[in-house]
Amino acid sequence: MPTETQRNEIFDNEGVPYWVFVDKDEKFVQLTVTTAHRNLPVGLARYWIRSPEEIELDDIYIFDETFKPEPLWLAIVRWVFCCPQCPQNYQRKGIGTSLLEFIIQHTKKGGASYITGFIASEKTDTGVLVRWYEGLGFEVDTSYNLPRLRLNLKK
After folding, report:
1. What is the pLDDT of residues 97-135, one digit of tens each?
2. What one-character DSSP code corresponds to residue 85?
3. CATH of the domain at 95
């Protein structure tokens, strides 16, 4: 079955808009977050459609360093005038929260009953992620090596 793509808008804590491109097929959905003004990728999320009722989060990540590709002439001007291109950190701006809220609403509209998943992160403290998911309504079971997530969408 061919992939279906949709474009949606989310906002960070300061009201800055970002695009969310949703690429979907029968069993898998990938969401790519870009800046609305320059279409620069800043994050992604993926989930599996396990059944009409169950969505399993696979990954959600907001980039901590992003450079905009630029033409050679601009790179030369930057070098001549000692104006290096600085990476921008998109974490801790509320983009991940807006993205997860978008996923919750998107899957709810699609008729899903619950979202499941695991917390597995190399960069972020697991306790921080547990509190983040709980703050968004997820039940988190920490009795496993990888904490398990579950959100009932029918409540």
Report:
1. 999 999 999 999 989 999 999 998 877 788 889 999 999
2. P
3. 3.40.630.30
